[in-house]
Every structure is written in structure tokens, then in C-alpha cells.
Design goal:
about 160 residues; alpha+beta; 7-stranded mixed beta sheet; two-stranded antiparallel sheet; binds coenzyme A
Length: about 160
């Protein structure tokens, strides 16, 4: 573990930073998953800071006894920030007596798919064509994503906690 990396909860005073960070890293504060439109900047979240500067963010939503990771972005790659935020979210889910942590990524995002597999999450479903439905809630979802691949499917990962 990198000793200069710290994780803390998003505070009310972080909201402006959260909005700016999501727009810079993701292009939007809105996230659609499984037909639900989330306003990610209003959700509870965890901030990862490297050498004092906040540069990674995870937002989450707790519903029906499950914790969904709604967004996860690290501005400094491969310094362990993404892994630490994911571990902190799993700990939060455990503390809240959730049955599982789950999340959606998209088929184009092979780096994220690889990252979640390496962190021990299980790929539990591919919701084929789901992004067409998501675009009805968020028309600005681009047609192509990572490395120009078409964004078409939701890929669901989970970490069982019980
Ligand atoms: C995915 C993301 C959150 C990972 O965060 P990170 O802080 O870079 O990841 P870590 O430093 O904790 O890396 C952990 C592991 O992931 C692997 N990994 C990270 N980026 C990877 C990539 N682009 N391709 C393959 N493996 C990758 C590393 O090899 C490492 O594995 P190891 O520790 O077993 O060697 C970050 O790359 C990111 O913000 N990506 C863009 C946004 C995104 O796609 N978010 C997910 C959307 S659902």
C-alpha cells in the first residue's frame, strides 16, 4: 500500500470538486445503470488523495440491501487509488450489512473489465444492448468509447459479502 495515499468520505464542502472532477473525467455528472439515472455528484462517495491532493473518486448508492458503485475514476493511474477506493467501498458495504457490492461498466471498457477481474469481482451478467435503453435517459452517451469501440452492452460485476 502506498503510504502517501489516503481515503476519506465526501463532505458537503467537496461537492463543487466532485462536480468538476466528474465532468473532467467522465464528461458528465449523470450515470445510467440498469435503467436508473443517477446524479452521481449528489451521491455519497469516497475520495482518494495522493500526496494530499484529491485525485480519485468513487460514488455509491445503497438500495435493497446492495451497494452499487455508481462511478469510479482515478486521475493518476496505477498508483493503487482505484483499488483502495474499491476496497473501502466493500468495507462500507460490509458495515452497512449489504449482501453484495455490484457495479456496471460497459463492453468497450476493457481496461476497467480487467481491473475489476484483478480485484476479485465476478462478471455476473452481460446485458446485451442495454445502452440503447440508457440513451433514452441520457442521450449524450457517446456511440463509441474506449479505443473507438461501440458502447452497446452493460457488463455487471459483483462482490458477494455474505
Ligand atoms: C479503472 C481505474 C479506476 C483503475 O484505477 P487505478 O488507480 O489506475 O488502478 P490501480 O492502480 O488500483 O490498479 C490496480 C490493478 O488494475 C490493473 N489495471 C489498471 N489499469 C489497467 C489497464 N488500463 N489495463 C489493464 N490493467 C489495468 C493494474 O495492473 C493493477 O493490477 P495489479 O495490482 O494486480 O497489478 C482507472 O484506471 C480509471 O479511472 N479508469 C478510467 C475510468 C473508468 O474506466 N472507470 C471505471 C468505469 S466503471
Amino acid at each position: 500500500m502506498n503510504p502517501s495515499t489516503t481515503i476519506r468520505d465526501v463532505q458537503a464542502s467537496d461537492r463543487a470538486w466532485v462536480r468538476t472532477f466528474l465532468r473532467q473525467r467522465f464528461g458528465s455528472t449523470k450515470v445510467v445503470s440498469r435503467g436508473v439515472l443517477h446524479q452521481a455528484d449528489e451521491l455519497p462517495g469516497l475520495i482518494g488523495a495522493h500526496e494530499g491532493a484529491p485525485n480519485a473518486l468513487l460514488t455509491y448508492c445503497v438500495r435493497d440491501g446492495d451497494l452499487e458503485v455508481v462511478s469510479l475514476h482515478a486521475a493518476i493511474a496505477r498508483q493503487g487509488l482505484g483499488s483502495r477506493l474499491l476496497a473501502a467501498a466493500a468495507e462500507r458495504a460490509h458495515d452497512l450489512a449489504c449482501r453484495r457490492l455490484w457495479l456496471i461498466t460497459t463492453n468497450d471498457n476493457q481496461p476497467a473489465i480487467e481491473f475489476y477481474k484483478r480485484r476479485g469481482l465476478r462478471l455476473v451478467a452481460v446485458h446485451r444492448g442495454a445502452i440503447a435503453e440508457s440513451r433514452k435517459l441520457k442521450p449524450e452517451i457517446p456511440l463509441r468509447g474506449v479505443e473507438g469501440r461501440p458502447i452497446e452492452d452493460e457488463v455487471e460485476f459483483e462482490l458477494p459479502l455474505v
